[in-house]
From TrEMBL:
<feature type="domain" description="Glutamate/phenylalanine/leucine/valine/L-tryptophan dehydrogenase C-terminal">
    <location>
        <begin position="202"/>
        <end position="442"/>
    </location>
</feature>
<dbReference type="InterPro" id="IPR006097">
    <property type="entry name" value="Glu/Leu/Phe/Val/Trp_DH_dimer"/>
</dbReference>
<keyword id="KW-0547">Nucleotide-binding</keyword>
<feature type="site" description="Important for catalysis">
    <location>
        <position position="166"/>
    </location>
</feature>
<feature type="binding site">
    <location>
        <position position="165"/>
    </location>
    <ligand>
        <name>substrate</name>
    </ligand>
</feature>
<dbReference type="InterPro" id="IPR046346">
    <property type="entry name" value="Aminoacid_DH-like_N_sf"/>
</dbReference>
<keyword id="KW-0560">Oxidoreductase</keyword>
<keyword id="KW-0520">NAD</keyword>
<dbReference type="Pfam" id="PF02812">
    <property type="entry name" value="ELFV_dehydrog_N"/>
</dbReference>
<dbReference type="GO" id="GO:0000166">
    <property type="term" value="F:nucleotide binding"/>
</dbReference>
<feature type="binding site">
    <location>
        <position position="240"/>
    </location>
    <ligand>
        <name>NAD(+)</name>
    </ligand>
</feature>
<dbReference type="InterPro" id="IPR014362">
    <property type="entry name" value="Glu_DH"/>
</dbReference>
<feature type="binding site">
    <location>
        <position position="209"/>
    </location>
    <ligand>
        <name>NAD(+)</name>
    </ligand>
</feature>
<dbReference type="GO" id="GO:0005829">
    <property type="term" value="C:cytosol"/>
</dbReference>
<dbReference type="GO" id="GO:0006537">
    <property type="term" value="P:glutamate biosynthetic process"/>
</dbReference>
<feature type="binding site">
    <location>
        <position position="114"/>
    </location>
    <ligand>
        <name>substrate</name>
    </ligand>
</feature>
<dbReference type="InterPro" id="IPR006096">
    <property type="entry name" value="Glu/Leu/Phe/Val/Trp_DH_C"/>
</dbReference>
Length: 444
């Protein structure tokens, strides 16, 4: 049995109850086959893959807090510190009722390769809780965040592990967590990214994931002799990533006609009104029905459905496994040119294969949404030198990073005879740097 098959078999046996983690591990290990096969003896002796798939440590803790009625509530907190071969653990905190250890592990595993692709010195980690910020008062969110950080602060630090936002964790939550960290530890340090501008945050971090997604999409199209201008774009999600992807795509002359949230979706034939969307989602924290109420020409539909709208470019920006095989078929039938992932693992493995087999240009999230964490690393640099860079400076670096990622993943795919397979290219390019660092550092 090949080394990859051996490790995959063991991963499946050991993690049978973690389908999302298995999905991520299978995708990565399958596409690393040519690299591993070429170094099989050495990597097997070093147990390189066994060390890569097993997190350095997995923290799981109780998060008790008091709600507005005086009732004590208990959630579960997680932090998976996956791999710090190339830098301190880095990755977001997801607050969503669906969070469990398998989801945090899949996200942490992806983060290792994504962070490597940024070219910046950051290792992989992820955390979160099954706490649901929806419908909670600011005081309840603060109570949760303070309790969560009271435990988490023992394990993180500016040179150790630097968490950030993800689903359900935005500027408000990061602020409450930063305050609690500072209070307990007594140090003012860049322990979190995505901070407010008045206390060490970076300009352009809010926009970075969505903007970065569009920058890499633009580079992909350019490389294939096309332009994003005048293209019709379909976006899912209505959160941090989706909003700024829509904004940048529109700035570059594309027409974005959809967005979605956890209960329904909008088709706006005039193009999504980003300012209205920001008002509904960032300010009012309301449902997309409010968008429809303010813009009667738009359609609102319950449930899921954005992938049935005819488009040139599809950008899934909500959550994992939101673009299924049947959606991929619909997109191909309607003549889609490119699918670039804003979310982490939004496309199922069979849907990805269908898109690739049908000639659709496809970039996976660990490459295409890396602009967020890359800009977090730029925030860390600014915190270390106690300076703040201008929006243009950060945005300029972000553009360059996304271009570099595109060319690195494209070249890696070519090197192994898989030209145009950007999934394999991303996994290989991300892996190479981490593997080299792990081997150089001995058995650890
Ligand atoms: P937000 O919480 O800001 O927004 C998430 C959006 O997706 C919301 O519109 C939400 O709906 C919708 N959504 C969430 N879960 C589901 C679900 N189970 N079914 C349907 N819709 C859902 O999160 P982000 O925009 O930050 O994150 C989106 C994705 O991008 C995630 O996969 C995240 O891991 C990834 N990502 C985020 C980065 C960042 O910097 N923020 C960086 C890289 C990747 P509703 O409005 O109803 O809550
Ligand atoms: O999935 C991701 O890359 C993020 N949620 C951002 C992580 C970060 O540290 O900025």
């Amino acid at each position: 049995m090949s080394y990859v098959d051996e490790v995959l078999k063991r991963v499946k046996e050991k993690n049978a109850s973690e389908p999302e983690f298995l999905q991520a591990a299978e995708e990565v290990l399958e596409s690393l086959r040519p690299v591993i096969d070429a170094n099989e003896e050495k990597y097997r002796k070093e147990a390189l893959l066994e060390r890569l798939v097993e997190p350095d440590r997995q923290l799981k803790f109780r998060v008790p807090w008091v709600d507005d009625k005086g009732q004590v509530q208990v959630n579960t907190g997680y932090r998976v510190q996956y791999n710090n071969a190339i830098g301190p653990y880095k990755g977001g905190l997801r607050l969503h009722p669906s969070v469990n250890i398998g989801i945090i592990k899949f996200l942490g595993f992806e983060q290792i390769f994504k962070n490597s692709l940024t070219g910046l010195p950051i290792g992989g980690g992820k955390g979160g809780s099954d706490f649901d910020p929806k419908g909670k008062s600011d005081r309840e969110v603060m109570a949760f965040c303070q309790s969560f950080m009271t435990e988490l602060c023992k394990y993180i630090g500016a040179d150790v592990d630097v968490p950030a936002g993800d689903i359900g964790t935005g500027a408000r939550e990061i602020g409450y967590m930063f305050g609690q960290y500072k209070r307990i530890k007594g140090t003012y340090e860049g322990v979190l990214t995505g901070k407010g501008l008045s206390y060490g945050g970076s300009l352009a971090r809010t926009e970075a994931t969505g903007y970065g997604l569009v920058y890499i999409t633009e580079e992909l199209l350019k490389d294939h002799g096309m332009d994003i201008k005048d293209k019709t774009v379909v976006v899912s999600g209505a959160g941090n990533v989706a909003i700024y992807a829509i904004q940048k795509a529109q700035q570059l002359g594309a027409k974005v006609v959809t967005c979605s949230d956890s209960t329904g979706w909008i088709y706006d034939p005039d193009g999504i009104d980003v300012e209205l969307l920001k008002e509904v989602k960032e300010v009012k924290r309301a449902r997309l029905t409010e968008y429809k109420a303010a813009k009667p020409n738009a359609e609102y539909h319950e449930g899921r459905g954005v992938w049935q709208i005819k488009c040139d470019i599809a950008l899934p920006c909500a959550t994992q496994n939101e673009l299924l095989l049947e959606d991929a078929k619909e997109l191909v039938k309607n003549g889609v040119t490119a699918v670039c992932e804003g979310a982490n693992m939004p496309t199922t493995l069979d849907a990805t294969k269908y898109l690739q087999d049908n000639g659709v240009l496809f970039i996976c999230g660990k490459a295409s949404n890396a602009g967020g964490v890359a800009t977090s690393a730029l925030e860390m640099s600014q915190n270390s030198e106690r300076l703040s860079w201008t929006f243009e400076e950060v945005d300029g670096k972000l553009q360059q990073i996304m271009k570099n990622i595109y060319h690195n993943i494209s070249d890696a795919a070519k090197r192994y005879g898989m030209e145009g397979n950007y999934v394999a290219g991303a996994n290989i390019a991300g892996f190479e740097k981490v593997a080299e660092a792990m081997l150089a550092q001995g058995v650890c």
